[in-house]
Amino acid sequence: MSGVTLKFHGAAGTVTGSCFEITGAGQTILVDCGMFQGTRSLEALNHEKLPFDPKKIDAVLLTHAHLDHSGRLAYLYGSGCKAKTYCTAPSADIIKPLLQDAAKLQAADVERRNRRADRSGLPPFTPLYDSKDIAKLHKNVRTVSYCEENHLDNGVSFRFWNARHIIGSASIEINIAGQRLLFSGDIGPGRAINCTASEIGGYDHIICESTYGDRDRDLVLVSERRETLARHVEEVMAAGGNLLIPAFALERTQAILEDFDALFESKRLAPVNVFLDSPLAQKVTMAVMRYRDSGTDMLKRTNIRFTQNTAESKKLNRMSGVVIIAGSGMCEGGRIRHHLIRNLPNRKSRLLLSGYQVAGTLGSVLRDGAKRVRISGNDVLVKAQVATLDGYSNHADRSGLVAWIKDRTPIRGTVFLAHGERDALSGLAEALTAVADLPAAVIPALGEQWALQPGKKATLLAAGRSDASDLTASRDWISKLTMLRQDMEEKLSQQRTNQDREKILAALKRALESAN
Predict the structure, then answer these.
(1) What CATH number is given for 4-215+394-471 in this structure?
(2) HSE (CB half, 13 Å, CA atoms) of 176?
C-alpha cells in the first residue's frame, strides 16, 4: 500500500484552530477547519490564505460544532472548496447559527477597525466570510450516524464514534491505504461510547486532544456545582451588584440554564432575574433541546429571560441585582464585553468564569488577577471580584485521556498529541510513558508534515512554520505590550507628584531610544 501524509494546520502546540489534512489513496481529507483563538498573533492566522488548495479537498470530516473546530468552514467554501462536509445531525443543525453569528460579529469588528483614525490610508480589513459562503457550506453538508461505515473513493472509509464531549461530538476513524487512523476530536469525561467492543483497539496512528493533559480534576457532583452557583448568586444579590457569567452558546449555556432551572424548581434559590443576553444562545438552546430531553423547559420559566435585540441588551446596563449570561465564554467577543465595561469597575459585582480560558484571552487575563484591562478601546479598572466555578467542563482530564488512549491499544505506529497548550501537551506525554507497549508520544508543531506507514513509527517529512513557537506562546509581543501598558499606567497612578511621573516617562523614553 502507498503511504499517507498527515499535516497539522491547526491545534498543534495550541488548543484552538483544529485542522488536519490527510492525503493517501488518491484522496485528500480534512478533519475540522476551526478558528484560532487566543493571542492577537494566533488570531491573525484566521485571515491568512489557507495552507492547502481548497479545491483539492475530497471530503471534510467535522468532529463537532465548537468554533475552534468549525469556525473556518465557511471560509474554506468561500475559498473554492466543493467537497462534502460530513458530520452528525446535531452538528449540522448547530453550525449554521454559530457561523451566521460569527460572520455578523466579524462584520461589526471590521467596520469598527476600519473607522479607526490610525487605519487611515491602510488597506481595509475584510470579514473572513459572509452569508453567501455559509450557504455554500450548507449545500454540501451531509449527516452521518455513529458507528456506520461511510465509503469514499479508492477504498477509503470513515466512521464516527460518540466522543461524549458535547451533543453530536465525535471521534473519527479513517481507513486509508491499509491504515487505521483515529482522530479523537474533543473527548468528554467518562468512558466514550463505542460501537462494538471488538473494534475499540488496534490502530496504526492516533491523534489525541490534550486540553487538560497536565492535570486531574476533582470530581464535582452536579448537586455541589449547583450549590456553589447558588451561593455566588446570593452573595452578589446581597451586595446589590450583578453576577456576570460569560458562557459559550453551545453546551455551556444550556448546562448553566439547567442548573438555574433546577435551583428555582427546588426553591433552593429565590427567583432572581436571569437574563440570557445572546440571541445565538437562544437559537442553539432550542436546537439542543430537540436532541436532548432534559425533562425541563427552561424557555417557559418567567424569571429566565431572553433578550431579543440590542436595545434590550443595553437596558441591562441600568439594572442591578441581576444575573447576566452572555457570550463569549473567554470574553473575546459578543455582548459580555459591554457588560464587563459597565460592571468590572463595580466592587459589588462579580465575574464568574465557568470554563477553560485559553492563554492570551481576556478571560485568562482577568482570571490571573489583572487590575486594569482594555476592552473595545476602553481602559477598564477591575474592582469586581473574579471567581471560577468548576464542574462544567466537557473535557476529559489527564487520567481520562490516558484511559482513552489505553483502551485503544495496541497502537502500532505513533500517538500524536494535539489540541493543547505546552504544559498540557508535555504533561500528557509524560503520563503516557507509564502505559505499557505504547510508542513515545509525538508533539507536532504547527505546519509539520508527517509520513504515515502501516504499523510503523511516523517520520517527519517537513518542518513546521518557522514562527510556530512564537505563535503558540502563551503571551505574544502584543499581549506583553498590553500588560506593560497596564503596569505602566498603574505605576504612574501610584506616584505622588507629576514630577515623579515625568521621571518614569523619561526613563521609558531613554530605554526606547537606546533600542534603536
Answers:
(1) 3.60.15.10
(2) 26
The domains spanning 4-215+394-471 and 222-388 adopt the same CATH topology: no
Q: Who's near 368: CB < 8 A, 6+ residues apart?
A: none
| CATH no. for 222-388 | 3.40.50.10890
How confident is the model at residue 1, as a pLDDT? 44
The residue ranges of every structural domain in the chain are: 4-215+394-471, 222-388, 480-514
Q: Quote the cell numbers at residue 255.
A: 448546562
Give residue 124's identity as a one-letter amino acid code.
Answer: P
H/E stretch holding 161 reads strand 157-162
Q: What tens digit of pLDDT does each residue of 162-209 get?
A: 999 999 999 999 999 999 999 999 999 866 556 665 467 789 999 999
Residue 294 pLDDT greater than 60, yes or no? no
99/87 Cα distance (integer angstroms): 15
Interatomic CA distance for residues 354 and 389, integer angstroms:
5
pLDDT tens digits, residue range 483-502? Answer: 677 777 778 888 888 888 88
Kindly provide the residue ranges of all beta strands, DSSP E only, lying in 238-344, ordered along the sequence.
243-246, 274-276, 304-306, 323-326
Residue among 101, 43, 38 nearest 250 (CA): 101
Burial group, residue 196, by CB count within 10 angstroms (0-12, 13-18, 19+): exposed
Coil, strand, or helix at residue 37? coil
**Exposure pattern of 378-409 as b/e (b: 16+ CB <10 Å)?**
eebebebbbbebebbbbbbbbebbbbbbeebb
Q: By three-state DSSP, how is residue 213 classified?
A: coil
Q: What's the CA gap between 169 and 65, in Å, rounded?
A: 7
**Could you give phi then psi for residue 401, rounded to 5 degrees?**
-65, -40
Residues 60/19, Cβ–Cβ less than 8 Å: no
Over the chain, what is the mean pLDDT? 91
Supply the pLDDT for residue 503: 87
Task: Evaluate if residue 39 carries a pLDDT over 50.
Answer: yes
Q: Please state, in angstroms and rounded to a whole number, the distance separating the CA atoms of residues 30 and 32.
A: 6
Round to whole Å and give the CA distance between 245 and 268.
19
Model pTM score: 0.87
